[in-house]
Automatic annotation (TrEMBL):
<dbReference type="InterPro" id="IPR005835">
    <property type="entry name" value="NTP_transferase_dom"/>
</dbReference>
<dbReference type="InterPro" id="IPR005907">
    <property type="entry name" value="G1P_thy_trans_s"/>
</dbReference>
<dbReference type="GO" id="GO:0046872">
    <property type="term" value="F:metal ion binding"/>
</dbReference>
<keyword id="KW-0548">Nucleotidyltransferase</keyword>
<comment type="function">
    <text>Catalyzes the formation of dTDP-glucose, from dTTP and glucose 1-phosphate, as well as its pyrophosphorolysis.</text>
</comment>
<keyword id="KW-0808">Transferase</keyword>
<comment type="similarity">
    <text>Belongs to the glucose-1-phosphate thymidylyltransferase family.</text>
</comment>
<keyword id="KW-0479">Metal-binding</keyword>
<dbReference type="Pfam" id="PF00483">
    <property type="entry name" value="NTP_transferase"/>
</dbReference>
<dbReference type="GO" id="GO:0008879">
    <property type="term" value="F:glucose-1-phosphate thymidylyltransferase activity"/>
</dbReference>
<dbReference type="InterPro" id="IPR029044">
    <property type="entry name" value="Nucleotide-diphossugar_trans"/>
</dbReference>
<feature type="domain" description="Nucleotidyl transferase">
    <location>
        <begin position="2"/>
        <end position="236"/>
    </location>
</feature>
<protein>
    <recommendedName>
        <fullName>Glucose-1-phosphate thymidylyltransferase</fullName>
        <ecNumber>2.7.7.24</ecNumber>
    </recommendedName>
</protein>
<keyword id="KW-0460">Magnesium</keyword>
Length: 286
């Protein structure tokens, strides 16, 4: 399975913070936001990853992440000129995806939970589509999934004014290769965007959509607003300081999954110099 991180958009809900910098490069406590979704794909065992950015931000992402070799991965980059919807990621990334299955994660989404890595790795051989549902107070901000009495998916709507349930669909999706064909069929919605909910509806109608409800042990943050960005930062700060472990440490994930050896970790330590992040890697090496 290959992976795509969609890190485009203007981040207008965070203005003036994001006028001169990509939202996905903002700090979430001690790391750039992009480290968190990247670590999720790496936890799933995915090593070939495409970053889709705006034209003006691509060089900054390349400076931060390079070609992925330092993490035992292969990173490629593509441009989304305008925010035309999540479904466009699969047509932009068609050549990159090739004949493989693909996972898509949004660059401003943060996930954490016990057993999360095992859950991710169970999805990489998906037959059809596998997405998640998470109960929220403001489902109108998201794609919303409605279940029937037997917990089977009844409907999927994108940012409905009157949501039919409290279950939002987080920005993490696993698809087989048919997603590219489906993405080409998606027409812009009334909002002028190619909605990923339309793709999910196609899989649902074909009887190939699996929706798992995230348990209470799982945490999800969509950092698209100032309040949610602040919540995510505080969550990471408290958890890391209590547990003395880093969330979203991409070098640690690479080492644990044997993408890299100790030599690459030593090089990363030199790169981070005297920062607390670098100190954490030194202790990890020791």
């Amino acid at each position: 399975m290959k992976g795509i991180i969609l890190a485009g958009g203007s981040g207008s809900r965070l203005y003036p913070i994001t006028i001169s910098v990509s939202k996905q490069l903002l700090p979430v406590y001690d790391k750039p936001m992009i480290y968190y979704p990247l670590s999720v794909l790496m936890l799933a065992g995915i090593r070939e990853i495409l970053f889709i950015t705006t034209p003006q931000d691509q060089k900054a992402f390349q400076k931060l992440l390079g070609n992925g070799a330092d993490l035992g991965c292969n990173f490629e980059y593509a441009i989304q000129d305008e925010p035309k919807g999540l479904a466009e990621a699969f047509t932009i990334g068609e050549e990159f995806i090739g004949k493989e299955k693909v996972a898509l994660i949004l660059g401003d989404n943060i996930f954490y939970g016990n057993g999360f890595g095992n859950l991710l790795r169970s999805k990489v051989d998906v037959d059809g589509a596998s997405i998640f549902a998470y109960p929220v107070k403001d489902p109108e901000r998201y794609g919303v999934v409605e279940f029937d009495d037997n917990k089977k998916v009844k409907s999927i709507e994108e940012k409905p004014k009157v949501p039919k349930s409290k279950y939002a669909i987080p920005g993490l999706y696993f698809y087989d290769n048919k997603v590219v064909e489906y993405a080409k069929q998606v027409k812009p919605s009334a909002r002028g965007e190619k909605e990923i909910s339309t793709i999910n509806q196609m899989y649902m109608e074909a009887g190939k959509l699996e929706v798992g409800v995230m348990t209470r042990g799982m945490s999800w943050f969509d950092t698209g607003t100032v309040e949610s960005l602040d919540d995510a930062t505080e969550f990471i700060r408290v958890l890391q300081n209590r547990q003395s472990t880093l969330i979203g440490c991409i070098e640690e994930v690479a080492l644990i999954h044997k993408f890299i050896g100790k030599d690459k970790l030593e090089s990363a330590i030199d790169k981070y110099e005297k920062s607390k992040y670098g100190d954490y890697l030194r202790n990890l090496l020791a």
